[in-house]
Amino acid sequence: MGRSELEMKEALTMVSRLGYSSRSLGICTTPPAVFFSSLSSTLAYSLNIPRAAQKPSSRSGSNCRLSCSKRAFSSVSDFKGREVRPPLEKANKEGNAGGEREKGDIMTIKPAVRIADRKLIVKDRIILTGVPDNVIQNSGSDSGPVEGVFLGAVFDEENCHHVVPLGTLQDVRFMACFRFKLWWMAQKMGDKGSEIPFETQFLLFETKDGSRLESDSGNEENQIVYTVFLPLIEGSFRACLQGNERDELELCLESGDCYTKASSFTHSVFIHAGTDPFAAIHNAIRAVKLHLKTFRLRHEKKLPSIVDYFGWCTWDAFYQDVTHEGVEAGLASLAAGGTAPKFVIIDDGWQSVGGDPGEEKPLLRLTGIKENAKFQNKDDPTTGIKSIVNIAKEKYGLKYVYVWHAITGYWGGVRPGQYGSLMKYPMLSKGVIEYEPALKNDPLAVQGLGLMNPKEVYRFYNELHSYLASTGIDGVKVDEQCILETLGGGLGGRVELTRQYHQALDASVAQNFPDNGCIACMSHNTDALYCSKQTAVMRASDDFFPRDPVSHTIHIAAVAYNSIFLGEIMQPDWDMFHSVHPAAEYHASARAISGGPVYVSDEPGKHNFELLKKLVLPDGSVLRACLPGRPTCDCLFCDPARDGVSLLKIWNMNKYTGVLGVYNCQGAAYNLVEKKNTFHATVSESITGYIRGRDVHLISEASTDSAEWTGDCAVYCQRSGRLIILPFNVSMPVSLKVLEHDIFTVTPVKVLAPGFSFAPIGLIDMFNSGGAIEGLKYEVKGGAKLSELEDGDEGTGPGVKRVENRSNELVGVVHVEVKGCGRFGAYSSAKPIRCLLGSKEVEFGYDSSSGLVTLELAHLPEGSQRVHLIEVEL
């Protein structure tokens, strides 16, 4: 088999494995000319768009399939994973749209990304000008040729720190994920090189050329090109990006060790481009994975089972004052209200720690691997933390118990002498100091950290984790991970030290926690990200701060934008929250569509059970979406925290529906001047934005037959209970004040016969209603040919006169498998003849004005049944 055949076979194999192909979704950044303010059936056609043009073509939406089969109804109930694999972009689609073009022979086949005449050119669009002569390009890696280009640089002298301009930005908008703290990233948008922050670890560009509307003809000249810049790890050096006052994009390389020097770099930044932003990002990070061979992608890792259950964390309930009794009180309190958690994280406060003698306010260090006196049973101290683990699992029915520890043991490390621990004093990078100058006087900088010998650290992790596993503990939350980058002096540098610690941690977790029980925290540096092969869940942003009113809108924006990058490598965890709080519903709804774990940190006795029951089923499970929640395409380069005009829209997928969350996050953001989160004035009290079905990027994948799907969607508004039919590419307005939100379940409409259309919504009292639908099958019956329509009306939109099946035969039967219990809802253009639950006919409600069908699932499926079997006869 020839090389080209091998490459094609590999590509087809990957497409098959991931279950995806990709088509570009066009973006409309201006309000549509027409939207639904009243439910008029003629509205869809008032745009003067032929019906054929409204139907999604092979270039709109996506052809990709969810990883669970939906063609065979029985296979859905057998689906064991919740994972939807990322999209793979169509290969070899070269755009030639707009912008300044490179002059030359147009018949020459050129790479999609290249440097020519000191310009960085991406799909014939110029991104950077004035590229210095010492910046070099490389189109290959150890894994072979790549679709993209690596950049490096050559310097005159060896050093441990280098900065080089890559060129001046031209005609682009960008979205950057940068570290505003040593531990955490946030988002920044702009269109000038000078606006790119220090410590940028992920950079996405959008060319301004061409139309922002999708090209129905498939001509890429009218499509936006998205370019991904990924600063990498090269040898012992870690790269990041930053801008300067000359609007240049700069590459910063540092080892973190004055003895670890280099002068030549060939693979420090990887650049990839495509017309689908999410596919371009996935393909770029996949190429980096194949090149570095030091980490794995999210879908290649085992997700710990806690992600499918509701949990409780002790941190904001007790902070470091957590006790055995406090943990039990919290579990009892939640169980009493009907929302019993199935996992608990016993956060900081359980370990044996002590300070250095003679210090007035000593920094605490770990003194032993076992629990402190607060978690020792008074009647039998030898049982230790096993006592509360047994109570949690046997008395309160928990499935999983996790505990917290720092990657260095504790905040101040391990007491010197244990595990080869020696005192080390953090050395901060210039970019970190720029945003956190106070760290220079932090207790760690003054008192130092007891750093275990890297050769001893596996023994520490294994002894700690094996002890915890022997007590019944199932996993760990590993905090303070970015501190390692500051401690590499004399040890080969930041990259080498981080790699050694993470290899040891991965090995210990794999050895001791079979469910891959590990959550990474305070870990947003690429030193750690690009050496993670085991950990599958990581915190997505700075903490939920219940007492800090400026933080809440910032938190939602940060978790969504950070998930664009982090979600390719791990499942982002959007953090705990309080169910009794002014922003409780704002936070809760976001967790419901995040795709990650859902857990609260309520104090015992302080719970909003009505809110929690929108998240948690009676068995403690949650309706988890399949992917990491991310901003919609038209939000990628808007700034919903700062610009005063944009709402944040977050999309995700379920098996047969999409979900769209809309948030007003304006009024507060990280202030680059004051170097802290601050409030700022907003232009208006309320902001109006627009949603459409295809804001859910992969919505065609929710269709049981995407080839026949017209593009129409049933949209259920969780806040108002309204059901609306949105024809393809038609939008509706959403108006929200600061700290307001709304959740929309989006389902492709299936046309069974003229006048007979259907779309399941799910459990409509839950935030992520559509997550309850586990299986869906449509049967078209003989009555479809005999069905009679009143007045000849064949529409599916709102305001269409409802029809009834007057024949003696059924038009169709819809089979739906539903997880959980509560009010089930669906759209039906015609009133059903009857509804069955199992084999029993049940009562149902039907709203002829909207087409909403409802029926009650009074309890969880009984016996061995995992789902309710619903049949709707039309």
Short key terms for the protein model shown above:
8-stranded parallel sheet, 7-stranded antiparallel sheet, alpha+beta, GH, carbohydrate metabolism, 874 residues, 17% helix, EC 2.4.1.82, 16 helices
Walk me through this protein's architecture:
Helices cover 17% and strands 30% of the residues. It is built from 16 helices and 46 strands. Mean pLDDT is 87; it is low at 1-107, 210-218 and 787-794. The strands form ten sheets. An eight-stranded parallel β-sheet has the order 25-24-23-22-19-16-15-26. The chain has a seven-stranded antiparallel β-sheet with strand order 1-2-3-6-13-12-11, with no helix packed on it. It is globular. Pfam families: Raffinose_syn. Residues 79-103 are annotated as: Disordered. Its EC number is 2.4.1.82.
The residue-averaged pLDDT reads 87
Treating each run of at least 4 consecutive H or I residues as one helix, how many helices? 16
SS content category = alpha+beta
Could you list the spans in which at least 5 consecutive residues all have pLDDT below 50? 1-107, 210-218, 787-794
Strands, count: 46
Which geometry do the CA atoms define?
globular
- Give the amount of beta strand, in percent: 25-35%
Radius of gyration: 28 Å
- Give the neighbour order of strands across the main sheet: 25-24-23-22-19-16-15-26
GO molecular function, one term: galactinol-sucrose galactosyltransferase activity
Catalytic activity: alpha-D-galactosyl-(1->3)-1D-myo-inositol + sucrose = raffinose + myo-inositol
EC number: 2.4.1.82
Keywords: Carbohydrate metabolism, Glycosyltransferase, Transferase
